[in-house]
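User: Show me sequence and structure for the first protein, then do the same for the second.

Assistant: Starting with the first protein.
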Amino acid sequence: MNKIFAPWRVEYVKKAKDEDYNECIFCEKPQENKDKENLLLLRGDKSFIILNKYPYNPGHGMVSTYRHIADYTKLSTEEVTEIHKLISNYIGAVEKVFNPDGFNIGMNIGKTGGAGIEDHLHIHIVPRWEGDNNFMPVLSDTRIISQSIESSYEELINEI
């Protein structure tokens, strides 16, 4: 049996099991003013773009409001407009840097809807390539990410 080590994921696994863990990265990370360390790529007036620390694929980003809100129907017109502008900007940057064949863009709303952080609305933007679903996730429930998150950040920050 082959083994693939991904020790950086232990932090996520431990936090996911901790019942008292209730950090909201979408509230805390923008306030820390450590954008590079926190993988925050772009700040708008109402929302921002941040890389997913535990990506599905290289360049997996998220757009979120600064305001802690879970209900999409309660977003202001300004928030909705800016969110979609940032999504468009991010797609353009990812196309230049990674040249993907397509994208998955979506929201998981509520726990039952699959939201990992259900109290703060965020939109995932996942670049996709032909054949990016190889035998590893299908047969062994293992995903291989071909680029470090830091390298993805460095390439994207110059295009955003």
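Switching to the second protein now.
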Amino acid sequence: MIGKIILSIIFGVSTPLFFSSTADAKVVGGFFGSSEKIHCIEPLKKEIATKSDPRYPNAYTQPKLYKLCYKLSFQYFILGVAMRDDGYVLAEKEGAALYIPLSKGMIAEYQEKGILPKPLPPYEVPLSAYIIGYSLWLLIGVPIALIILLVLITVIFGKLSRLLNRGKICRKCDLFLTENDFSDGKCSDCGEPTPA
């Protein structure tokens, strides 16, 4: 009976995690490997011309109006194994494949030029990103934690029952003592003397 309850709890907890995270895993990169996701915070007020190729220091692209974003990186092995917050980036749109990573030096330079706001607007990584990023560990850890919790509850209730029924249970055979056992001075099943 307890085994069926444990299995139903494990299935009930792990199934939504598996199906929600696999759908999101496809969106952000698949079941194996890594992927990145860009989330926009706000558009910039000025256009920026970026270097098109690091080998040519004077070659710049046409100025574009970028958005200030943050980037999250995910690692997958069937489900999410890890999630990393990579900080601020510049991108043209939400979910863009191309972005410009912002180093501390670039942030300071762009803030001096008035391109980036000072201070940078804060952002918060959503809870869903953590659930997706660590879904494999949730799938493994939640059932194990539930089993440990059920074992602890069983042990605690067993000890509590013994404490509450001290003097009413035979020390040798763990059966409840009747009034006849107390009047005879011994357990009728095993012959153990009753507690005084």
